[in-house]
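Give me structure tokens for this 137-residue protein.
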Amino acid sequence: MGRILAIDYGMKRTGLAVTDELQIIASGLITVDSKDIIAFLTNYVAKEKVEKIVVGLPKQMDNTASESEIYIQLFLKRLKKALPQIPVERVDERFTSKMAFQTMIDSGLKKKQRQNKALIDEISATLILQSYLASKS
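Here you go.
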């Protein structure tokens, strides 16, 4: 069994989270500059067995696609070209940024630490991955 990798893609930064090999626990991995994400993923997959990639699907409250979906579709084309052997699934990511920020408050992070957008992206990817795992069990 391989890991499941979750991606919270953004125009500037991309948050990543990953499961353990048994696909039980979701943990934040890193936040990468979006311009470097394909190179990072190619390198990561060469070192770790990744069974599936889960990418956040941003939607509006009325269930229509978010404006950022255009950029995510371009990223997905590049991802499929770079890693065609790994299946990709999409997961609704509504509210993950708000939930990530609340998670930071609940865990006692100081205001200065909560302003770290890279950490918010990583936590958002973890929430996307947890949502995916919960839907599969």
